[in-house]
Specification:
Blueprint lengths: L52 H22 L11 H11 L15 H13 L3 H26 L2 H15 L16 H18 L3 H12 L3 H16 L5 H21 L5 H6 L7 H11 L4 H23 L6 H10 L4 H4 L1 H15 L5 H11 L13 H4 L1 H14 L11 H20 L3 E5 L2 E5 L2 H13 L5 E4 L3 H7 L12 H4 L2 H13 L4 E5 L17 H10 L1 E7 L4 E6 L1
Parallel strand pairs: 3-4
Antiparallel strand pairs: 1-2, 4-6, 5-6
């Protein structure tokens, strides 16, 4: 029997001064100010147009229409049946049935998201429709938070630009195997960002205690959010936007939460063996995180950053002429940087904005928007883009860009509204990309959880057969197929469930897996195709997981095999 490497085949395919600040003065109509003092530019208040109720309703309706288009053209095509998402579909139901995180199931993030999902799905069910509803709900909260924050700080047009960007680029984005706010690679990422956006709006409205609460909760979704929250609190305390008492309350709440988690998960090694596990910091993990951060392709990333920055500077200079003849080149430039280079430029601009705000204008909302933008993109410093992991992490960048361009950079007349062009160009470009990618997903995968569509005909056919075959008992899927456990309503007796190189390639981790296989052997093991080149690996059973495949060859027999041009699967029985 030779099944090593089955999972290795590539699977595919204001008036000048205080106007516009959060004191609320910026909510009053203000006329266009004279040519500003460029030595110390100050926020510009929203123009009378931004106070127009009809305009507000029209812009809100546009955002809703864009979200509806994104939703409709991607409907039931979000979920990838192998990668990432299944972890957060599978774990909450196990927790509801008595399992304990970190003890019974390994989980590399803090515990808030899975327990919150377990609480919610305990009431509304564990179907695909239930998780879709959760995704829509958190997306609605983010959109409302962005609108409220920008509307208060800058006006309805900047609010529209930021919210439009989220609705078009992030809500149903297709850059991460279709993972987005409806079925994300990690609900910890999307729930945490939802809480960060709530905190952003709360700070703009000076609801500081509420903001601190949201920041604490976000910290318990992902470690990078804990770092981001700490940085935000520190920056805003230095800027005197938060009192030392608020910083102390944040620190105190974090200590109390840590003590409670340590007590509840005592004996599980939840920090050292899961959240800060050594296998997440090996050579393969380092390679993966270099790709995520943009460091692996830094020349290309810096080129895109430079193009975006040049485009933004060119638009700003054209606007300073005050002549509408400049509208045509502005539109052309805006379209040219509509390939995410517009957002990549903010990898640099956000730091300049933060430095300026701290040194020259601590009273402006700029310091709040810049703090959130910088803190949320620390993981992707050279890849500040709505693509891949950025569909979550760059959302505060949308807010900073909208506030800075529409409200902070000096302007002479209503040409400022031409800044909408790069936002709109990116929105249209991404919606079309989503249309093309989701159109490929035409092959249904049917389960008792619901039906969704895949782009891979071989995979859809194989998984339909596997779902029809496996009805009971325990099942372990290698590599990274716990979605199949969710779809077949089976449980894995192993605490490990991803079997990707960053988890399995480490010798100590593989030894631990072998101990679990010997002491708690699953009734069945499914080995499936999973492209792991992103980790610098050729495949499970080829250049990692060799001892695991040897164990399976000795203790399991092939029950059924499915082979296709783009997907293979073996079902083994003990």
């Amino acid at each position: 029997m030779n099944f090593a490497g089955v999972g290795s085949r590539e699977s595919g395919v204001g008036s000048a001064g205080v106007a516009g600040r959060e004191s609320g003065v910026g909510d009053e109509p203000a006329s266009i100010s004279p040519a500003p003092d460029t030595r110390h530019p100050t926020p510009v208040a929203p123009t009378p147009d931004s106070r127009n109720a009809t305009l507000s309703l029209a812009l809100i309706a546009t955002v809703i229409a864009v979200a509806a288009i994104a939703f409709a053209q991607s409907y039931a095509r979000w979920l990838d049946p192998i990668i990432d998402t299944g972890r957060d579909l599978y774990i909450p139901e196990q927790l509801a049935n008595g399992a304990k995180l970190y003890r019974d199931i390994r989980y590399q993030y803090p515990p808030l998201a899975p327990y919150l999902l377990a609480l919610i799905t305990g009431g509304i069910g564990h179907s695909l429709l239930s998780y879709m509803a959760i995704g829509v709900a958190q997306s609605f909260v983010i959109a409302v938070s962005l609108w409220m924050a920008l509307r208060r700080a800058a006006g309805v047009v900047p609010a529209f630009a930021a919210t439009l960007s989220f609705a078009a680029l992030s809500f149903c984005g297709a850059s991460t195997w279709g993972a987005n706010f409806l079925f994300p690679y990690s609900y910890g990422a999307t729930i945490g960002m939802t809480l960060l956006c709530v905190a952003l709006a709360a700070l703009i409205y000076r609801r500081n205690a509420f903001a601190i609460t949201a920041l604490v909760l976000a910290s318990w979704c992902k470690v990078e959010y804990a770092i981001a929250a700490l940085l935000i609190v520190a920056i805003l305390t230095v800027a005197r936007r938060l009192r030392p008492a608020h910083a102390a309350s944040f620190a105190g709440a974090m200590v109390v939460a840590f003590a409670a988690a340590s007590f509840y998960f005592r004996g599980s090694g939840w920090l050292t063996e899961d959240v800060f596990a050594s296998w997440q910091h090996g050579a393969r993990a380092q390679r993966f995180f270099e790709i995520v951060s943009g460091a692996a392709m830094w020349r290309d990333q810096l080129t895109q950053l430079a193009l975006g920055l040049a485009g933004i500077v060119a638009i700003a200079l054209l606007m300073r002429t005050g002549r509408w003849a400049a509208a045509i080149p502005i539109i052309i430039i805006g379209i040219l940087i509509g390939n995410h280079s517009f957002f990549r430029a903010w990898a640099l601009i956000q730091w300049l904005a933060l430095g300026w705000a701290l040194m020259r204008d601590r009273e402006s909302p700029l310091v709040i928007f810049a703090a959130f933008s910088v803190a949320s993109t620390l993981r992707i410093p050279l890849n500040v883009s709505p693509s891949w992991y950025g569909f979550v992490l760059t959302i505060p960048v949308f807010a900073l860009a909208a506030y800075t361009l529409f409200c902070y950079i000096p302007r002479r007349n209503a040409m400022v509204y031409l800044w909408i062009v790069p936002f709109a160009a990116n929105a249209v470009g991404d919606l079309w990309q989503q249309h093309e990618q989701y159109a490929l997903k035409s092959f249904p995968i049917v389960s008792s959880r619901g039906t969704f569509f895949d782009w891979n005909a071989d995979r859809a056919r194989t998984l339909n057969a596997l779902i029809a075959t496996v009805h009971d008992g325990t099942l372990a899927v290698m590599p990274e197929g716990v979605t199949i456990n969710y779809l077949t309503r089976t449980r894995t007796p192993l605490t490990f469930h991803t079997f990707t190189p960053v988890e399995t390639a480490d010798t100590a981790a593989e030894t631990a897996i072998l101990r679990e296989l010997a002491s708690h052997p699953p009734d069945r093991v499914a080995i499936v195709t999973r492209d792991v080149r992103e980790y610098g690996s050729r495949g499970f059973g080829i250049d990692y997981g060799l001892r695991i495949t040897a164990f399976l060859q000795t203790h399991y027999r092939v029950e059924q095999a499915w082979h296709g041009e783009h997907f293979d699967a073996l079902l083994l029985h003990r």
